[in-house]
Fold:
Amino acid sequence: MKVCVVAGARPNFMKLAPVVKALEGRGAEVVIVHSGQHYDPMMSDIFFEELALRVPDHHLGVGSGSHAVQTGSVMVAFEPLLHELKTDTVVVVGDVNSTVACALVAAKAGVEVAHVEAGLRSRDWSMPEEINRVVVDRLADTLLAPSPDGVENLLAEGCPAERIHLVGNVMIDTLLTHLDQARSRPIRDQLDIEDGEYGLVTLHRPANVDDPSVLAGIARALVAISESCRLIFPAHPRVAGRLAEMDLGPRVTVIGPIGYMDSIALQSGARLVLTDSGGIQEETTVLGVPCLTLRDNTERPITISEGTNLLVGRDPERIITSAELVLAEGVERRRPALWDGRAAERIADALLGS
Ligand code: UD1
Structure:
């Protein structure tokens, strides 16, 4: 069987790596396509190197743009390639613009679509990712859900049950494979921080970083929290320039984007994590680290009901109070079923037959 696996943006790469390995381990011919949505070395190449993911067979080189420009550019570039490749299936992961673009092209070309991370819903239509998720799941022939809530959402939307497979969380496959190696990284020494004595911050959602008044409020909360817990903030390109203009005080350290290994190293030693990332909500759950999610909703509710995640929104006072509570009391450590490091094997079973 010939499978085309597509990725485009930072959160795709760690989901792709175990899927490629599992499919190739079963003898499938795998073609890796990179859309080029993320292109800076620290947003893309470093993940391929660290995860020992081979260089993509095809690079579409689309780069940044508005949603229409970016999605349209991926479609225009992917369509002729897909015709040339003649694959049986296109596997798309996650919820970024490259995901929906390639799913649309494949569905219209009559090629089977498989979606890794199917069924997640925030029910927040202001998030571009929510639109991407719903469209991709409507198009996909094989829906690979990470958690039971994903299965319930898909069934409630009328997806045929035979298309849906509860496979677990492939992101956790990558985490468990690399955790020991990540923890031996020197980044904590380089930043002069000790395990359990700092917090980690990541923010990149437009709703948090594009409106200066919202970002200023969050920054005020971070400065207040940093008085009792030093904070490390690796900045996504979307927010880096804006942070450079702000005074975050002496105990919030802003650094450039970091690779996968350093991200896991910093998460695993943190007293708490403040984030608006989807994947970090999942990783902190498995690492047992308290996670405050600076959003009003999450497409990953299982990280709240069965993990270490708390939704705290973007009100500065609420963020500060929640951080104080978590720093004083910690959170209970739990792990959802099937987040066990074997999700990619179950995906290969679903796609190739066990
Ligand atoms: C995208 C995804 C988001 C994901 C995030 C992870 C969509 C709709 N959004 O958001 O779901 O959580 O990736 O990072 O697909 N830029 C660079 N270098 C790069 C890439 C981007 O400097 O390598 C800058 C550009 O100024 C660009 C901006 O970041 O305009 C935003 O990039 P884009 O890919 O449009 O969205 P993200 O915010 O990264």
Remarks:
- Residues 9-11, 37-40, 43, 64, 70, 95-97, 128-129, 204, 236-238 surround uridine-diphosphate-N-acetylglucosamine (CB under 6 Å).
- The chain is about 45% helix and 15% strand.
- The chain has a mean pLDDT of 97.
- The first strand starts at residue 2 and ends at 7.
